């Protein structure tokens, strides 16, 4: 088989083990490697596999890989894959970017951008810089208190970021975060945008407060509590959330798009009853995801609540359905 034909045949490689994945990272170190973490039960993943197959034809120098997230948990856990579809981009065996969700135009854009050598699309005008500036403005305003850090609050990837998270948590400060390792363009651009060369960086109402040393000074002078918004006590928040609607489902994903097989099954059961219900995506809020397990003394998801009281998970809901008791329970008659 000629080299070109071999390349076309292996346009999208399927990875079946962590060892195979590590091998690919080494073998394809010189090119851009795009990895789709997918699941066979999610229809949006099938669509994105088609998109990726098309991109593979257009970008012969880019390596495209499919990895079933639940079948190779070591790799999924290492890269914090909590939902599908998720795409990771690698160059020189290092992760350089990430895309969560089924966004075909965004995937195409990122592949084109990273396949070209520079961090911006090859273009003679200044539009990409303007777009980045606008994006940074939106990101710094994404929450009243925004932390740009290395890693996540659950898994900081440098000592300074870890200390910053500890200080904010100690003072019960409500904040959102952005992992600068997930986006090289943001990582470099924010240094210029804020005229601050290091990370972590803390913003309140879109304004830079400073890095770790500044936050330590504010803490020492008792000013930190007056600058940053306080988080409501978690237990109060969970009580409000579980009572938000008469029937509340805490799940991975939402009504439109379940992001795990159990959540998908429970949605199908609830939809068949015709009863109105609301959902909360636990993947969007790590504090709720962990806190609700303790609050309800129930370790897994999905969790179904009626009038603020826990009914149970998928097995209990199936049991109630099979016994003909589900509808009365959902209507609060039991």
From TrEMBL:
Transmembrane portions of the chain: none
GO cellular component: cytosol; nucleus; Z disc
Subcellular location: Cytoplasm, Cytosol; Cytoplasm, Myofibril, Sarcomere, Z line
Superkingdom of origin organism: Eukaryota
GO biological process, one term: intracellular iron ion homeostasis
Alphabetized GO MF terms: iron-sulfur cluster binding; metal ion binding
Disordered, as annotated region: 110-129
Segment forming the signal sequence: none
Main location (coarse class): cytoplasm
Gene3D superfamilies referenced in this protein's UniProt entry, alphabetically: Glutaredoxin (3.40.30.10)
UniProt domain Thioredoxin: residue ranges: 1-116
Role, per record: Together with BOLA2, acts as a cytosolic iron-sulfur (Fe-S) cluster assembly factor that facilitates [2Fe-2S] cluster insertion into a subset of cytosolic proteins. Acts as a critical negative regulator of cardiac hypertrophy and a positive inotropic regulator. Required for hemoglobin maturation. Does not possess any thyoredoxin activity since it lacks the conserved motif that is essential for catalytic activity.
Subunit structure: Homodimer; the homodimer is independent of 2Fe-2S clusters. Heterotrimer; forms a heterotrimeric complex composed by two BOLA2 molecules and one GLRX3 molecule; linked by [2Fe-2S] clusters. Interacts (via N-terminus) with PRKCQ/PKC-theta. Interacts (via C-terminus) with CSRP3. Interacts with CSRP2.
Name of the protein in question: Glutaredoxin-3
Gene: GLRX3
